[in-house]
From TrEMBL:
InterPro entries reported in the protein's UniProt record: ARFGAP/RecO, DNA_rep/recomb_RecO_N, NA-bd_OB-fold, RecO, RecO_C
DNA replication/recombination mediator RecO N-terminal domain: residues covered: 4-74
Keyword DNA damage: yes
An example Gene Ontology biological process: double-strand break repair
Keyword DNA repair in record: yes
Native organism: Oceanisphaera psychrotolerans
Gene Ontology CC entries for this record: bacterial nucleoid
Stated role: Involved in DNA repair and RecF pathway recombination.
Name under which the protein is recorded: DNA repair protein RecO
Family, similarity comment: Belongs to the RecO family.
Keywords: DNA damage, DNA recombination, DNA repair
Gene this protein is translated from: recO
One Pfam family named in its UniProt record: RecO_N
């Protein structure tokens, strides 16, 4: 059986092979051995790269399977600059948040669509926030933005709220550093990111909500993005 897939990470293995992490539509995240893929004349050389739509054939009984066949089904999705770092960030979310060998066909489609939007020049921040919110909801980590997690009452648009991880938003007696305005929460519930200040709140919430599930890791894509920004400023 062939599988629609994207490579999300790879590394050298032994002298001529690679260990490749792929995200497939039919069987979720899989770990594969691509034997001989680093040999000069390998048909896989240059193919097992991020953002290339692939069709793969693989087999094996354990968690580490053998890659038997790979072909591109479309040209590589071209990402440059900040969009490239954003694509790598999506790959890290897939790698760290999804358990292996579990189908997530809807996530696969959302991931593919987000890559295409980034390549087409859509706003990077809204694209990432939409995908992050989708991931939180599909994995059961989402929250109700319109209800006070402590009292159960409706969020007041004029009030201030504090986010408590894995619980939700709690009303505050007054504004405190890091508090969320109630009207921002209603906008987040509708994924209305048209206001710049709401977009800032969306990013802060995503960082807080995803943090516990990323295990406190410093994501490589963020480090590369920061390094790239520093490099561009020094030019």
């Amino acid at each position: 059986m062939a599988h629609a897939a994207f490579v999300i990470h790879s590394r050298p293995y032994r002298e001529t092979s690679q260990l490749v992490e792929v995200f497939t539509r039919e069987q979720g995240r899989q770990s594969l051995v691509a034997r001989g893929s680093r040999q000069p004349r390998s048909s896989l050389k240059g193919l097992l790269q991020p953002f290339v739509p692939l069709r793969l054939g693989f087999a094996g009984k354990g968690e580490l399977k053998n890659l038997h066949h790979a072909e591109a089904t479309a040209p590589a999705i071209r990402l440059t600059g900040t969009a490239l770092y954003s694509g790598l960030y999506l790959n890290e979310l897939i790698y760290y948040l999804l358990e292996t060998q579990t189908p997530f066909d809807e996530v696969f489609d959302a991931y593919h669509d987000t890559l295409k939007k980034l390549a087409n020049g859509d706003g990077i921040e809204p694209c990432l926030r939409h995908f992050e919110f989708y991931m939180l909801n599909i994995l059961g980590y989402g929250v109700d933005f319109t209800q006070d997690a402590r009292s159960g009452s409706a969020v007041c648009p004029e009030g201030w709220y504090q986010y408590q991880p894995e619980s939700g938003f709690i009303a505050l007696a007054k504004h405190e550093p890091g508090a969320y305005p109630g009207d921002h929460l209603y906008a987040l519930a509708e994924l209305d990111l048209s206001r710049a200040e709401v977009l800032v709140s969306a990013k802060r919430f995503s960082r807080q909500a995803l943090g516990p599930y990323l295990g406190g890791r410093t994501l490589r894509s963020r480090a590369l993005f920061i390094k790239g920004k520093r490099g561009s400023r020094s030019e």
